[in-house]
Amino acid sequence: MMRLDRFLSETTPLTRSLAKRALKNGEVTLNGEPIKQSATQIDTDNDVVVLNGERLALVGLRYIMLHKPVDVECNARRGLYQRAIDLIDLPKADRLQPVGRLDVDTTGLLLLTDDGQWSHRVTSPRHRCAKVYIAELAEPVEGAAAEWAIGQVAEGIMLDGEETPTQPATLRFLSPSQAELTITEGRYHQVKRMFAALGNHVNSLHRSSIGYLALDANLAPGEWRELTADEIALF
């Protein structure tokens, strides 16, 4: 059961005050009958609510995969850059929250959802969900230097300003200037800071997967799709 004015605000762009105004103006029917009482309790599963000829229904939980481009931020508030949720063409997209964050200049797999428990399972350090990043490096790394870096990452790196080293991670070089780093944490700017601690600089960064879920190769930067039931069940 739910108050009618709240139901209207949950299923349309209307605020509670605008929902009450629509009711007073006779724009809403309940089970075919005009209704103006905002406090009316409705059965959201069985009652039929129509606003200006359009039947309304509650939005269920959504799970989104976005190929995040550069110059897109994960903040809820509007800032200098376009927000990730602005790319999602769904009702009530502003309710979607990024599952973890990517820096504004980092591209790749970004998950968004309005399911807080699911999001926690993905991001909680206790679950040690692996995240894979591809880094383009300013300085090429080869031979003994590459072996040394791989060993340092496997042991854990003490980052500037931190009191504990990073959790053991996996580093492999795809080329002298391109590295794949797999981490299970989410510290502030962690990947960039790890390479900085190794004496290098990340020119560009791309997240390719989270856990067993890889970025859909069919999604161009800025494109998105809903996760399948099987993909949701991975976490």
UniProtKB/TrEMBL annotation:
Domain RNA-binding S4 intervals: 2-64
Keyword Isomerase: yes
PROSITE patterns tied to this protein: PSI_RSU, S4
EC number(s) on file: 5.4.99.-
CDD domains: PseudoU_synth_RsuA, S4
Keyword entries, A-Z: Isomerase, RNA-binding
Reactions this protein catalyses: uridine(516) in 16S rRNA = pseudouridine(516) in 16S rRNA
PANTHER family from the UniProt entry: PSEUDOURIDINE SYNTHASE, PSEUDOURIDINE SYNTHASE FAMILY PROTEIN-RELATED
Family per similarity comment: Belongs to the pseudouridine synthase RsuA family.
Function recorded in the entry: Responsible for synthesis of pseudouridine from uracil-516 in 16S ribosomal RNA.
Name used for this protein in its record: Pseudouridine synthase
Lineage, highest ranks first: Bacteria, Pseudomonadati, Pseudomonadota, Gammaproteobacteria, Oceanospirillales
Gene that produces this protein: rsuA
